[in-house]
Amino acid sequence: GENVEQHPSTLSVQEGDSAVIKCTYSDSASNYFPWYKQELGKRPQLIIDIRSNVGEKKDQRIAVTLNKTAKHFSLHITETQPEDSAVYFCAATPSGIKAAGNKLTFGGGTRVLVKP
Amino acid sequence: NAGVMQNPRHLVRRRGQEARLRCSPMKGHSHVYWYRQLPEEGLKFMVYLQKENIIDESGMPKERFSAEFPKEGPSILRIQQVVRGDSAAYFCASSRDTGELFFGEGSRLTVL
Q1: Which residues of B touch A6 (CB under 8 A)?
Q2: Quick check: A103 and B48 CB within 8 A?
Q3: Under DSSP, is residue B73 helix (H, G, I), strand (E, B) or coil?
């Protein structure tokens, strides 16, 4: 099955700086890579996703890059703000394979702290 | 359109008791997934169900845990004879065929 590794486990940045989180996956059949943000005591919420037919996707201050050859993908947050403080999870799945539905395998999470 | 609804939000059980967690998917979603999150850890897949069918239960412990998604009513995750190690947040998510997973607010189980 799929295995997703995520680094770093904690990340402290100064407000206004950039934050980068990296993930690797093992299953070459994976083709859908979402990122979720989870605030303390809350549910995970999708912030951005990327499919394997593109190498980069951007949404305001958030961007995700994908290198299928190397099987790694990254989340980039620019101009960080205190409200970006949360735990971020990457995930991977071979979406489109009927038996898999959209079963996600998650990385271990990165706790991001943005210091004012 | 209400989101994924889970109840109870908090559940306290003594060792040996049973825990039942319920999940109603978003309207129009026929795929339900259960994940377990231990304190300070990531989300671990447990089981994936469609109506009346378990599709993938590769993440479910072999004993004491079971899940169902009946034709009518919510999906239920049942834990029999709970132990302290079962204390965790249990998240349910739903999706259409291959779309985004939407998570519920979770059910936090505490075993005394």
Answers
A1: 42
A2: yes
A3: coil
Strands A10-14 and A86-92: unpaired
Chain B residues within 8 A of A45 when measuring between CB atoms = 103
Chain B CA closest to residue A3: B44
Which of A25-34, A47-56, B5-14 has maximum average pLDDT?
A: B5-14
The SS3 of residue A83 is helix
Asked if residue A100 has pLDDT above 60, the reply is: no
Does A52 lie at the interface with B, CB-CB under 8 angstroms?
no
DSSP 3-state of B57? coil
By the 8 A CB rule, do A93 and B48 touch? Answer: no
Inter-chain CB proximity A101 and B44 less than 8 Å: no
One pLDDT digit (tens) per residue for chain B, 112 residues: 579 999 999 999 999 999 999 999 999 888 999 999 998 788 999 999 998 899 999 999 999 999 999 988 999 999 999 999 999 999 999 988 767 889 999 999 999 9
